[in-house]
Write a structure and sequence with these properties.
This is Aldo/keto reductase. It is built from ten helices and twelve strands. The protein is α/β, with parallel strands linked by helices.
Length: 311
């Protein structure tokens, strides 16, 4: 029986002209004041072949740090080791404001990009994404503003995060540049993109898919590591973890590697955003390329997640 295998080779980021790794490293929990330790994490990701690094201006408050803290810490790493910038495709996001909550007005988008550039200490962000859709922003104005930022050389490509297919299509309809990427939550525990048109739209339009929380917000490997935020596994999570563990034993890898591989096996070629902040576990993520699936094995994990047979 034919198996679905994975390749560690770089691939195009949609139609952006950028080339990226098939796995990315995310900085949602990139926190602290130790620049040396932060640099070790960045280097671990790059050494593991993850050339796409994804951050956001809102990353900070969730870690009890100020707005922009993750970008600022990365900026300190790049100031200490400027050569690292040439090894990465730098992605960030904006459009969330504390207490608003969403703002994609032209003035704020320009302000947000300029602020991110300052915190990061760079001249250009390779991929800039609207973090959450602002329902009070007309997509024509959003498109015009973002394309202006591309023309100004401040951002290289445009993406969206947490958008419905209709919201993505509305923005793309007003853009003269191709939309490069979408970023949905997708994991063996978050399977909605398989059914709501998100992955189908990506394949139809050649959008790169950046899958956030590919480990089910940490539930597949023990839950959210931040104090007081972990929750006991429910029956569904327990069942999916058991299926992933059993499949991993065939290849000598753990649950996380199988979960990443399951995400990457879809023909939309989603890029899982690895969120661990432990250098050893960042390095271990590459074990996902050891894993393959028959169709029956891939679907068995989906059925376990859904809790019912497919039609």
């Amino acid at each position: 029986m034919t198996e679905i295998t994975l390749s560690p080779k770089s691939r195009p980021l949609g139609k952006s002209g950028l080339s990226v790794s098939p796995m990315a490293w995310g900085m949602w929990r990139f926190a602290g004041t130790d620049v040396r330790a932060a640099r070790e994490r960045v280097e671990a990701a790059l050494d593991a072949g993850m050339t796409l690094l994804d951050t956001a201006d809102i990353y900070g408050p969730d870690n009890d740090e100020p707005f922009g803290a993750s970008e600022l810490l990365l900026g300190k790493v790049l100031a200490e080791a400027p050569a690292l910038r040439d090894r990465m495709v730098l992605a960030s996001k904006g459009g969330i404001r504390m207490g608003v909550p969403y703002d994609s007005s032209p003035a704020y988008l320009v302000e947000a990009v300029d602020a991110s550039l300052t915190r990061l200490g760079v001249e250009r962000i390779d991929l800039w994404q609207i973090h959450r859709p602002d329902m009070l922003a007309h997509p024509a104005e959003t498109a015009r503003t973002l394309e202006g930022l591309v023309k100004a050389g401040k951002i290289g490509a445009i993406g969206v995060s947490n958008h419905t297919p209709a919201q993505t299509a509305a923005l793309a309809a007003h853009m003269s540049l191709p939309l490069a990427s979408i970023q949905p939550e997708f994991s063996p525990l978050a399977t909605a993109p398989l059914f709501d048109g998100v992955l189908d739209q990506a394949m139809a339009n050649d959008y790169a898919v950046l899958a956030w929380s590919p480990l089910g917000q940490g539930r597949l490997v023990g839950g959210d590591p931040r104090p007081g935020r972990g929750k006991p596994d429910d029956a569904r999570t327990t069942a999916v973890k058991a299926l992933l563990k059993a499949h991993g034993e065939r290849f000598g890898v753990g649950v996380s590697a199988v979960a990443y591989a399951w995400v990457m096996a879809h023909p939309a070629r989603p890029i899982p955003i690895v969120g661990t902040q432990t250098p050893a576990r960042i390095a271990e993520a590459a074990e996902a390329f050891k894993v393959s699936f028959t169709r029956a094995e891939w679907y068995a994990i989906l059925v376990g997640s859904l809790g019912e047979n497919l039609p």
